[in-house]
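Section 5: illustrative case.
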Protein backbone atom coordinates (compact mmCIF):
# COMPACT_ATOMS: atom_id res chain seq x y z
CA UNK A 1 0.00 0.00 0.00
CA UNK A 2 1.18 3.19 -0.82
CA UNK A 3 0.65 6.23 1.13
CA UNK A 4 -0.28 9.16 -0.98
CA UNK A 5 0.62 12.29 0.80
CA UNK A 6 -0.05 15.16 -1.59
CA UNK A 7 -0.45 17.89 0.91
CA UNK A 8 2.70 19.90 1.39
CA UNK A 9 4.37 19.71 4.65
CA UNK A 10 3.64 22.69 6.91
CA UNK A 11 7.30 23.06 7.74
CA UNK A 12 8.33 23.59 4.12
CA UNK A 13 5.55 26.17 3.56
CA UNK A 14 6.69 28.03 6.63
CA UNK A 15 10.27 27.93 5.38
CA UNK A 16 9.24 29.36 2.00
CA UNK A 17 7.31 32.15 3.65
CA UNK A 18 10.26 32.87 5.95
CA UNK A 19 12.62 33.02 2.95
CA UNK A 20 10.18 35.33 1.09
CA UNK A 21 9.89 37.55 4.13
CA UNK A 22 13.66 37.64 4.55
CA UNK A 23 14.08 38.50 0.83
CA UNK A 24 11.49 41.27 1.23
CA UNK A 25 13.42 42.68 4.20
CA UNK A 26 16.70 42.57 2.23
CA UNK A 27 15.05 44.41 -0.70
CA UNK A 28 13.71 47.11 1.65
CA UNK A 29 17.16 47.50 3.26
CA UNK A 30 18.83 47.76 -0.16
CA UNK A 31 16.23 50.30 -1.30
CA UNK A 32 16.86 52.42 1.79
CA UNK A 33 20.63 52.16 1.31
CA UNK A 34 20.30 53.28 -2.32
CA UNK A 35 18.11 56.20 -1.27
CA UNK A 36 20.61 57.24 1.44
CA UNK A 37 23.57 56.95 -0.99
CA UNK A 38 21.74 58.95 -3.64
CA UNK A 39 20.70 61.65 -1.14
CA UNK A 40 24.25 61.84 0.23
CA UNK A 41 25.67 62.12 -3.29
CA UNK A 42 23.26 64.93 -4.22
CA UNK A 43 23.95 66.74 -0.93
CA UNK A 44 27.71 66.37 -1.51
CA UNK A 45 27.43 67.80 -5.02
CA UNK A 46 25.35 70.73 -3.76
CA UNK A 47 27.79 71.45 -0.91
CA UNK A 48 30.78 71.22 -3.28
CA UNK A 49 29.10 73.56 -5.79
CA UNK A 50 28.28 76.08 -3.07
CA UNK A 51 31.85 75.87 -1.72
CA UNK A 52 33.42 76.38 -5.16
CA UNK A 53 31.07 79.29 -5.87
CA UNK A 54 31.90 80.87 -2.51
CA UNK A 55 35.66 80.51 -3.09
CA UNK A 56 35.42 82.01 -6.59
CA UNK A 57 33.26 84.90 -5.35
CA UNK A 58 35.65 85.55 -2.47
CA UNK A 59 38.69 85.48 -4.79
CA UNK A 60 37.07 87.90 -7.23
CA UNK A 61 35.91 90.28 -4.52
CA UNK A 62 39.33 90.19 -2.84
CA UNK A 63 41.09 90.98 -6.12
CA UNK A 64 38.70 93.77 -7.05
CA UNK A 65 38.52 95.35 -3.60
CA UNK A 66 42.25 95.86 -3.09
CA UNK A 67 43.38 99.46 -3.59
CA UNK A 68 46.27 100.03 -5.93
CA UNK A 69 49.53 101.20 -4.43
CA UNK A 70 50.40 104.75 -5.35
CA UNK A 71 52.77 107.45 -4.12
CA UNK A 72 51.60 109.71 -1.30
CA UNK A 73 51.64 112.85 -3.44
CA UNK A 74 49.26 111.56 -6.13
CA UNK A 75 46.23 113.79 -6.66
CA UNK A 76 43.53 112.96 -9.20
CA UNK A 77 45.75 110.26 -10.73
CA UNK A 78 48.57 112.76 -11.28
CA UNK A 79 51.70 113.90 -9.49
CA UNK A 80 51.75 117.70 -9.02
CA UNK A 81 55.14 119.36 -9.55
CA UNK A 82 56.07 122.58 -7.74
CA UNK A 83 59.49 122.80 -9.32
CA UNK A 84 61.33 120.61 -11.73
CA UNK A 85 63.72 119.47 -9.00
CA UNK A 86 61.08 118.82 -6.30
CA UNK A 87 57.64 117.32 -5.94
CA UNK A 88 54.90 119.16 -4.06
CA UNK A 89 51.95 117.84 -2.08
CA UNK A 90 49.49 119.77 -4.22
CA UNK A 91 49.06 122.95 -6.21
CA UNK A 92 49.12 126.03 -4.01
CA UNK A 93 47.45 129.33 -4.66
CA UNK A 94 44.52 127.81 -6.54
CA UNK A 95 41.04 128.91 -5.58
CA UNK A 96 37.69 127.33 -6.27
CA UNK A 97 36.25 128.83 -9.44
CA UNK A 98 32.65 128.77 -8.23
CA UNK A 99 33.36 129.59 -4.57
CA UNK A 100 30.89 129.54 -1.70
CA UNK A 101 28.38 132.34 -0.98
CA UNK A 102 30.30 133.34 2.17
CA UNK A 103 33.50 133.73 0.16
CA UNK A 104 31.76 135.96 -2.38
CA UNK A 105 30.20 138.13 0.34
CA UNK A 106 33.54 138.57 2.06
CA UNK A 107 35.28 139.36 -1.20
CA UNK A 108 32.74 142.03 -2.16
CA UNK A 109 32.44 143.56 1.31
CA UNK A 110 36.13 144.30 1.77
CA UNK A 111 37.76 145.12 -1.54
CA UNK A 112 41.48 145.69 -1.32
CA UNK A 113 43.00 148.33 -3.57
CA UNK A 114 45.60 147.07 -5.98
CA UNK A 115 48.73 149.13 -5.83
CA UNK A 116 50.75 147.57 -8.59
CA UNK A 117 50.14 145.69 -11.82
CA UNK A 118 52.04 142.69 -10.37
CA UNK A 119 49.22 142.17 -7.86
CA UNK A 120 46.65 141.76 -10.64
CA UNK A 121 48.92 139.30 -12.45
CA UNK A 122 49.17 137.09 -9.37
CA UNK A 123 45.38 137.19 -8.98
CA UNK A 124 45.07 135.11 -12.15
CA UNK A 125 45.30 131.43 -11.23
CA UNK A 126 48.16 129.57 -12.86
CA UNK A 127 47.49 127.41 -15.88
CA UNK A 128 47.20 123.71 -15.06
CA UNK A 129 49.35 121.54 -17.32
CA UNK A 130 48.61 117.80 -17.24
CA UNK A 131 51.21 115.56 -18.89
CA UNK A 132 50.25 111.94 -19.56
CA UNK A 133 53.44 109.95 -19.96
CA UNK A 134 54.33 106.32 -20.62
CA UNK A 135 57.86 105.83 -19.35
CA UNK A 136 58.55 103.14 -21.96
CA UNK A 137 57.71 105.50 -24.84
CA UNK A 138 60.69 107.03 -26.64
CA UNK A 139 58.36 109.78 -27.88
CA UNK A 140 57.58 110.77 -24.29
CA UNK A 141 61.30 111.13 -23.59
CA UNK A 142 61.79 113.26 -26.68
CA UNK A 143 58.84 115.48 -25.72
CA UNK A 144 60.17 115.91 -22.17
CA UNK A 145 63.66 116.83 -23.42
CA UNK A 146 62.23 119.31 -25.92
CA UNK A 147 59.92 121.03 -23.41
CA UNK A 148 61.77 120.80 -20.09
CA UNK A 149 63.21 124.33 -20.27
CA UNK A 150 59.87 125.99 -21.03
CA UNK A 151 58.06 123.95 -18.36
CA UNK A 152 60.75 124.79 -15.80
CA UNK A 153 60.37 128.49 -16.56
CA UNK A 154 56.58 128.45 -16.24
CA UNK A 155 56.59 126.41 -13.01
CA UNK A 156 59.33 128.50 -11.37
CA UNK A 157 57.53 131.75 -12.30
CA UNK A 158 54.25 130.42 -10.90
CA UNK A 159 52.54 130.88 -14.25
CA UNK A 160 51.65 127.19 -14.45
CA UNK A 161 51.23 124.10 -12.33
CA UNK A 162 52.50 120.84 -13.72
CA UNK A 163 51.04 117.38 -13.04
CA UNK A 164 52.40 114.14 -14.44
CA UNK A 165 49.97 111.28 -15.01
CA UNK A 166 51.83 108.00 -15.59
CA UNK A 167 50.05 105.63 -17.97
CA UNK A 168 50.96 102.11 -18.99
CA UNK A 169 50.27 101.61 -22.67
CA UNK A 170 53.49 99.96 -23.79
CA UNK A 171 54.04 97.57 -20.85
CA UNK A 172 52.35 94.74 -22.79
CA UNK A 173 54.82 95.13 -25.65
CA UNK A 174 57.80 94.59 -23.34
CA UNK A 175 56.86 90.91 -22.86
CA UNK A 176 56.78 91.35 -19.10
CA UNK A 177 60.42 92.39 -18.81
CA UNK A 178 59.79 96.09 -18.23
CA UNK A 179 57.06 98.07 -16.54
CA UNK A 180 56.02 101.63 -17.16
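Designed sequence:
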Amino acid sequence: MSIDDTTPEPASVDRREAVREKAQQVRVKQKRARLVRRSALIAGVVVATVAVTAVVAWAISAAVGQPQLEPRNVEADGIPISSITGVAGGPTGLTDVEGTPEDEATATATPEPSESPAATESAVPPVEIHVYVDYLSPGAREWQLANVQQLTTWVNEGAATLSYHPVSMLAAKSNGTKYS
